[in-house]
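Q&A log
Question type: sequence-to-structure
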Amino acid sequence: MATATVRDLRTQFPRVKLLIARDGEVVVTDHGRPAFVLRSYTPPEKPVSKRLDYYARLKSRQPKPLSHAAARALDAADRDER
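Response status: OK
Response body:
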């Protein structure tokens, strides 16, 4: 594992960059003590998003239509007292 100082980062960054490319990571020391670890960046993988079927969601939330017989029974119940 390669090491570099904070001063090396300021003055010789291209050399530190080559060390990261060669070794994979570099330990950066501050006043002789390990302080940071530099690694090459790997972007996270994007999760595959499942496309939503909005029309199916809408249909599932809408009330079901009444059958003809149920509509007649409802009308008859409403007009019972008239």
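Response note: Residues 2-39 form one domain.
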